[in-house]
Amino acid sequence: MIRNETDTDALVERARTGDVAARENLLVRHRGRLRRMVAVRMDRRLAARLDPSDVIQEALTEAAVRLPDYLEHRPMPFYPWLRQLTWDCLIRLHREHIYRQKRSVAREEDWEAVLADESARLVADQLLARPDSPIARLARREMLERVQAAMDELDPKDREILVLKYLEQLTTEQISAVLGITPAAVKSRHFRAIQRVHRRLAP
Fold it and tell me: Which of 126, 148, 159 lies closest to 200 in space, CA to CA?
């Protein structure tokens, strides 16, 4: 991960000097990570109409247009910036395809919460060990329900930190940029969130 971010920083510097190949590389090197992010957060209704690759393609097209401005100002590290564009694109496509005739702001805000809830269930699954027997699978299902309940009780930002860390596999620094909080706050909130989940699971 560190090597990947170092390579990205080097590409950004080359792109700032006008290196066309570096600009093109910047826009495609994170495609796999972005696709994973979209896949785990995509509403099932939208997934029935679009493939995550469609979302990524639209996001990268917009990123190509906005890249010169990013290179000039660099408001945040490159991947969190590209991820935010992709997230905004995902929300926009959902509104266009699912709520085309239902423009209620409340409904749109509810959808963003649903995304977080679905992601939280996936995080709960990630936090549990793989089953190796029918009895273990049964116990795991019961434990999964308890983990999901514990996730539901977390502060939304704490829950999002778990999603970013365990599903999107972002670094502390990237999570800091995405959420607009300090790396120290990310570590502190992550620790507290895990502690709360563990307490909820205690017998």
Answer: 148
